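It would be a great kindness if you could assist me with a short task in structural biology. The matter concerns a single protein, recorded as an amino acid sequence and a row of backbone structure tokens. Could you please explain, in whatever detail you think fit, how the structure tokens follow from the sequence? Thank you for your consideration; the sequence and its tokens are set out here:
___
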Amino acid sequence: MIDSQSLKQGVENWKRLINQQNAYLETRRNFATQCINKADTIRQALQNPTERLTALEIFELLDIEEQKALFSDLIQLASVGHSDIELVRQVILAFPRQWVLENIEKNAEPVLKQGTDEEYRRLLEFYLDLDKNLAQRLARQALEQDDLGIKEVGEDFNTYLNQ
């Protein structure tokens, strides 16, 4: 049986949660309407793991041109494993699909140029969600690399794609 003290504490915690949620929504509205450099603020926040989740959650407040200006930042984040990688991928998938398909390779190129097997693997995982042909091209590109780890990633995905 739950004692009255526990019930009271639960109600107090609930009220505190509602108050904090309302404060967050008000602050979010203020940010959307009053911040003159939203994209720059979000770009900086994307690079800070303690601010990244909030930046990704409010990404939709940017207009489409501001979002597109941050696309390469998102691709960079989609290429490494971290706690927000799924949310980064969801944000990218919210862009117009055709635009993503037309722009992802040129935005991923600098990442892959300096990349390791980690970047290739993360991007190949994501490419599988986007387009099989895109994933096949990247797997072939990985197979052509001198780095044995990257080649192995290419082999893994090439095998998977040909099943």
Notes: The two ends are 56 Å apart (CA to CA). The chain has ten helices and no strands. The mean pLDDT is 95. Residues 4-34 form the longest helix (31 residues).
